[in-house]
């Protein structure tokens, strides 16, 4: 963990102004410079934190390190603690980054954040683009075609507009088969917030109100998405990431944190809230152990053997 003692005091740091929370995505900016930070951003956005404003993350993180000379991290708000954990992960995952931040100007710090953000945005764009088509292969009835057909390059008929995608996106606890519920969802009379989780997150798309953890985040659809993003597409065929799957099933054409239809950012953060809830640590660890059965044999990045704890560390082993 990076503490204040690891950072050399710089007079210029005091002139940096706090920005808004770094964990929501910032506005899109075009950065043309090629840099290894872009490649790292692709990796970091896929494996550590998907939706992030990196210039703000770096700015807030450096300022918070100075504040932590007098104030322990535990005294910060929950959102600030989460943001700082992401910041620490970024520093630890890219050797020499802290030195670049120490020696550079405020403008250079922001530029570094833009490069990392460009990589993360590029990976997110690639994943959402390819998942748009691939998801249709995974949800099609075995041995049959989707009826009415869904176009691979257009999403206008997806979401609650289609019987199949609507049934998968229907919030857990609601009955898609009920005509009134189905019509209210399609018309928008019944709005769905990001923290109302869709039924496709559950094994066999079945929700148990008496045991909400039963099958949660263990669906075959999520396993397919994970393999699609982190391994070759051929592994999907042999054995058929939740935010992007949810988007792929929706009728929204552009991934946006401000899209009131998908509310992707709220959805993503609601899942993180669950994973970071100490009262749910036992169930979370069991879930991570379950996922390790699907990815402990090879690293998504290097293809080398990895132990389960190296892929999805449990809360007891994660630092």
Q: Give the mean pLDDT.
A: 82
Poorly predicted sequence stretches spanning 5 or more consecutive residues: 7-15, 29-33, 234-240, 297-319
Principal-axis shape equals globular
Elements, N to C (H/E):
HHHHHHHHHHHHH
Beta-strand content bin: under 5%
Task: Specify the number of helices.
Answer: 13
Question: What does this 3D model show about the protein?
Answer:
The protein is mostly helical and 319 residues long. Helix content is 48%, strand content 0%. It contains 13 helices and no strands. The chain has helices at 36-47, 54-67, 78-93, 97-103, 106-139, 163-169, 179-187, 220-230, 234-238, 242-249, 264-275, 281-295, 308-311. Helix 2 (54-67) packs across helix 5 (106-139). The longest helix has 34 residues, at 106-139. It is globular and about 60 Å long. The chain starts with 35 loop residues before the first helix and ends in an 8-residue tail after the last helix. The model is unreliable at 7-15, 29-33, 234-240 and 297-319 (pLDDT under 50).
What does the secondary structure layout of this molecule look like, with pairings?
Layout: H1 36-47, H2 54-67, H3 78-93, H4 97-103, H5 106-139, H6 163-169, H7 179-187, H8 220-230, H9 234-238, H10 242-249, H11 264-275, H12 281-295, H13 308-311
């Amino acid at each position: 963990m990076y503490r204040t003692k690891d950072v050399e005091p710089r007079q210029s740091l005091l002139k940096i102004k706090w920005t808004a929370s770094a964990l929501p995505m910032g506005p899109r900016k075009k950065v043309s410079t090629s840099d290894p930070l872009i490649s790292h951003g692709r990796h970091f956005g896929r494996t550590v934190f998907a939706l992030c404003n990196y210039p703000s993350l770096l700015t807030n993180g450096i300022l918070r390190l100075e504040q932590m000379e007098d104030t322990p991290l535990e005294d910060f708000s929950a959102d600030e603690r989460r943001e700082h954990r992401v910041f620490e992960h970024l520093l630890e995952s890219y050797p020499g980054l802290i030195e670049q931040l120490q020696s550079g100007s405020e403008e250079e710090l922001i530029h570094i954040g833009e490069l990392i953000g460009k990589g993360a945005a590029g990976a997110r764009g690639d994943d959402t683009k390819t998942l748009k088509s691939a998801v249709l292969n995974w949800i099609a009835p075995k041995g049959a075609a989707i009826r009415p057909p869904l176009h691979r390059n257009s999403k206008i008929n997806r979401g609650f507009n289609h019987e199949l995608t609507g049934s998968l996106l229907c919030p857990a606890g609601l009955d898609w088969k009920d005509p009134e519920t189905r019509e209210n969802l399609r018309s928008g009379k019944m709005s769905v917030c990001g923290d109302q989780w869709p039924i496709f997150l559950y094994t066999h798309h079945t929700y148990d109100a008496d045991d909400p953890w039963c099958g949660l985040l263990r669906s075959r659809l999520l396993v397919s998405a994970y393999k699609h993003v982190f391994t070759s597409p051929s592994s999907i065929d042999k054995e058929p990431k939740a935010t992007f799957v949810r988007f792929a099933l929706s009728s929204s054409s552009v991934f946006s944190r401000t899209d009131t239809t998908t509310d992707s950012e709220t959805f993503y953060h609601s899942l993180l809230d669950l994973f970071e809830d100490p009262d749910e640590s036992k169930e979370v660890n069991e879930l991570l152990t379950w996922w390790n059965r699907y990815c402990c044999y090879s690293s998504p990045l290097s293809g080398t053997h990895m132990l389960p704890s190296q892929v999805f560390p449990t809360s007891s082993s994660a630092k």
